[in-house]
Design brief:
globular; 4 helices; 75 residues; mainly alpha
């Protein structure tokens, strides 16, 4: 992520860091039923479906998804 990052990375940062735009990730996560998941379920989904995405980006995409969908995700 960029040096000026916060807990919700920009669209450009996500695209550059993961190879996909946030809207793509959000569509995949929505199809998988992620609006009801907790943290460990996001981690498991990324491990199974996008293992090329490192842990920092899993956290960033998950935080961004939660913010956009108005979710509270427990660790």
């Amino acid at each position: 992520m960029s040096d000026a990052t916060n807990s919700t990375p920009s669209d450009r940062d996500v695209l550059e860091g993961t190879g996909r735009h946030p809207d793509e990730w959000f569509a995949f996560l929505d199809m998988a039923g992620a609006t009801t998941w907790q943290h460990e379920e996001f981690v498991a989904w990324f491990e199974a479906n996008a293992s090329h995405v490192n842990a920092e980006w899993v956290e960033g995409v998950t935080a961004r998804y939660a913010a956009v969908r108005g979710l509270t995700i427990s660790k």
